[in-house]
Amino acid sequence: MGKGKIVGRGVAGLAGLALLAGCSAAGQEQPQGERTVTVLAAASLTESFDQLGQRFSAENPGVRVQFDYAGSSTLAEQLEQGRQADLFASADTKNMTKATSAGVAAGEPQTFATNKLTIAVPKGNPGNIRSLADLNAPGRDVVQCAPQVPCGAAAQTAERAAGVQVRAASEENDVKSVLRKVTAGEADAGLVYVSDAKAAAGQVDSVEFPAADTAINDYPIVPVKGAAEPELAARFLEFVRGPAGAEVLGQHGFGTP
Amino acid sequence: MPGVLWLPAVLALALIVLPVLGLLTRVDAARLPALLSSPAALDALNLSVRTSFVATALSLVLGGPLAVVLARARLRGLRVLRAVVLLPLVLPPVVGGLALLYLLGRTGPVGGLIDLAGLRLPYTTAAVVLAQTFVAMPFLVVGLEGALRSADARYEQVAATLGAGPWLTFRRVTVPLLLPALGSSVVLTFARALGEFGATITFAGSLQGTTRTLPLAIYTTAQSDVDAAVAMSLLLVVLALLVIGLAGTKAVEGRG
């Protein structure tokens, strides 16, 4: 086989793949006879919103809730850059304000859940960590969020209230990275949200500390301007703020406002 | 050259140049000096340059000999070996970081031993260097190996028939043959180390002054202050252009 032939086949193969990818992407966007609500939600809502989405679909046949989970600031930035969606649920008011002041919200944001920090430790708490101050014991690798992201800002507030400045080995960009370092055994402890610790209850234990109450995080949700399904979006918003939302969010460690 | 090639060529160039120019349109010129002289930016720049130097040196010391082995040794399975060397180039960097973590992290087979000795790699500057070396070294190996394979092996054979031992031949014949390619390979390796992100954040973590290199600082800063992140991005682009441009033009053009 000549070189030209190989290149030709390669190009044809790539073109074929591109075509396939295009088809399936288009197919996903337009499922037949189904309506889709697109929700951009903070990563910490993954487990609870997945469950709420399923229940909502069960109660509303033909309606699918599609989620995109990411850091709240990433999502706010994407909305600002013109991303289409029906609802935006942020893990903090700061990024919600960023979105509303950019003019992408339709209406006032409403708080639907609260969250607070806890200390995640490996199962059985081998380091015998009882308080924030214990985190600074020599030889301990503690991981927390960077102050630039909501969980890090909350950690800063709580630490200030407790009068303890935790010396972190690493400051991660999202709470799931912190949790992963603890579950992987690469950190002796990590500051995460109660909801995240609960989601990983099989792998970590959590140690509550009093100062966590000084940094309660509000989770606001808002309809997005130019939504494709504004009426469905409003229904899902009420669902999240109603009894079903309270029940599911509560199961996952969130508080209610 | 067929004239029709101009159109895709210009499009290709636009695909590289326009996004970088797009970045420039977001730069807040008034705040730029303040943003660039912030401790966070300076620490990150300093750390990036230092670790990239060490990673490049490490790549040279280890990857240089590997290139010679790949080009000159008579081994079964050399093709497989060559493919393995390319692996870090095609793997997503996060995969590289996870791989390093599972080998050298506290719970890894090698990392566990290191831990027993009272040392650790994750969360240290050494881990940054290791991550950078992992992803950047193939550039050096591939560059040098290609140069060696296209260079005439008969020079080495002649040197040998004239009575030069392997070490003398290597020093006086092989290394000079490699010098032109060495420049471009070293520059590419350094530039790749400078831009390393995924393996570092996964394996080394992110802490200002210790492990937060410029790419990591850009990512973290972008969460709260886009202007500052754009300023740091500009810094990285300028740095990369300087490295490639000043140090590498001749070498990259193959005339070094």
Task: Explain this structure.
The complex is a heterodimer of chains A (257) and B (256). Chain A is built from nine helices and ten strands. Chain A has 257 residues and is of the alpha/beta class. In chain A, the strands form two sheets. In chain A, strands 2-1-3-10-4 form a five-stranded mixed sheet. A five-stranded mixed sheet of chain A has the order 7-6-8-5-9. In chain A, strand 1, helix 2 and strand 2 form a beta-alpha-beta unit. The N and C termini of chain A lie far apart (69 Å). In chain A, 45% of the residues are buried. About 4% of the residues of chain A have low confidence. Chain B is mostly helical. Helices cover 77% and strands 0% of the residues of chain B. The longest helix of chain B is centred in the N-terminal third of the chain and has 34 residues. At the A-B interface, helix 3 and strand 7 of A face helix 11 of B.
Offer a few descriptive terms.
heterodimer; A: 257 residues; alpha/beta; five-stranded mixed sheet; 10 strands; B: 256 residues; mainly alpha; 13 helices; 77% helix; globular
